[in-house]
Amino acid sequence: MASMAAELARRKARADDGAGSQANAVPFKQQDFERLRAECLQSGSLFCDPTFPAGWDSLGYNQLGRYSSKTIGVEWKRPTELNSDPQFITDGATRTDICQGALGDCWLLAAISSLTLDPDLLSRVVPPGQSFSSQYAGVFHFQLWQYGEWVDVVVDDRLPTRDGKLLFVHSAEGGEFWSALLEKAYAKVTSSYEALTGGSSIEGFEDFTGGISESYDLKEAPPFLFNIIRKALKLGSLLGCSIDISSSYDTEAITSQRLVKGHAYSITAAQQVHHFGSPVQLLRIRNPWGQVEWTGAWSDDSKEWGGVQPEEKKKLDHSADDGEFWISYNDFLRQFSRLDICNLTPDTLSSDEVGRWNYGEFEGVWRVGSTAGGCRNYPATFCSNPQFFIRLEDVDDDPHDGEDGCTVLIGLMQKDARKERRFGRDLNTIGFAIYEVPDEYKGRSNAHLGPDVLLRRTAVARSRNFINLREVCDRFKLPPGEYAIIPSTFEPHRKGSFILRVFTEKQAHTRPMEEDVNADIQEPDVGEHDVDPHFKRLFVQISGNDSEVSEYELQKVLDRVVAQRSDVKTDGFSLQTCRSIINLLDMDGSSKLGLLEFHSLWMKIQKYLGIFKSHDSDGSGTMSSHEMRAALAEAGFQVNSAVIQEVVGRFADSSCAVDFDSFLGCLVRVEMLFKMFRTLDKKNQGTITLDLQQWLCLAIN
Questions:
Q1: Across 98-107, 263-272, 462-471, which has the greatest mean pLDDT?
Q2: 498 lies in which domain range?
Q3: Which residue of the set 241, 287, 342, 473 is catalytic?
């Protein structure tokens, strides 16, 4: 309960003041760079980071763990101990500032290298004005995108070394340290240096930009990919390409036409020219090395340029800067293996010359027993998954495939993947499905589609695969309309947190599909003359001389009644449940139930027993926790996923089953909370204000 309250408070703060946006990064580990630097300058000391200490845990947990041979002789030293004149950045950040060390994080280095090609993006990740001279206090900071929010990460400048040299990333000359400190900041947010081992440069692209990435195998290039590339460039996207290697010996091997295998290139333009009057599609590609260039058709001095009109040739600037070259699209498909496109959020782009994607982002969780429903192969639980609404209204301008429709990019990312490695936890296998919203639900997002909709319809689109990657991302062309996106793990009962991101070319409306929290509590008006004489005699037997039923007497009678039923399982009613029942129905403040109060209870029990049995689909005498949402709705309580998660956590057992005493206790508790809230919400505004005493009394109750 406390964790959910904290999470809801965090989300509210983010909505209220933009915390976590690019303009208002959240201090990681609550460490404020300016304050820490000022404190160190005032005390004359160098910063030592207590949250990422210069020790074994920060290095790793297995290959770089305390007893690993790879960490023998490691010492943590500051740049001032390694170089007589250390520099943070000299003459701008370049590729030569990024040389790999004894860590398998080339994916990260490729992303950092690409970052150096765009000074605006680099300055967001590496805030300017940091140095080893002016206001030096041994503390630096960087800004990274982490699962839906920008964080400002503080590090001290103690770096792992062996024999007086940096162990991991370093500059070619050895005198610049921004890349080594950025690597340390990344290691800090993922828990250790070892957690950075292995990955895709796409992950780095996203964490440096907050963008959403697509990846294409060029051997299976979709039709109109050239048009997708051209439109992506117009939208300010970052595009990278590479040639696969078959073995470690191929790494950075140069082909006969001067292309480098296993090397990250960037695409900077896509144009169509006329070669002797016939159209040819060209791509302009940049090699960050700057020296090694393609020598095939359409290279800088190739004969093909002789067939292009001078004005068109001048427009293309065909003799480009060192390291930049043109190549035909067909040769590109033959020579390169993979294309990655990182589509940027609107707030990342500073230029007014490019278009903007429209963007929606949502956080969600798969909680065992409540919202971890698995894929469509598991119909009993699938509909429990979180659901998200999207309304597409306008078709694309200049569609890349010539067909009208709405382009949508959907990315599903699971959180904290690298941190979990330390504990031996694998990534979940994830994916998503897209359903058209039926007519009766159109115009609404305050609904949760149930089995009557999702199990009777076919998805209009779905992710290409369920796969155990950090992110699954796919591009779709959908007709205008309203859709529900259902993200899930492949199997049910797999816990995890995720970010769902939706990019559209034209304006779209996106939001979670959640019911409004509400209750329709029916209280029958019963007088003593409405009570059956037989029931009165039964009440006298139960209540004894005082003609009232205490929690102890209520516990006995409920246990006795349920024990006589073979179709309902229970481990007995607790005194706490019985006290809650009495608190709900006690009208005169006696802490006991009189005849009419007990009669109301009996009617509720009969009603709730019928609901319970109708949702005991396998006749086991218990109810699956995934049925709780529908059962609560039948009882008159409309709740959303956040409430369902808390309900299941409180009232279901370890096998995600709910027995009858827990079910009755849940309904009584929920009804009591609704009534308390409505009593305090005197103006019917949907909010209440409590002082500390009121809060404590309500919480204890």
A1: 462-471
A2: 359-514
A3: 287
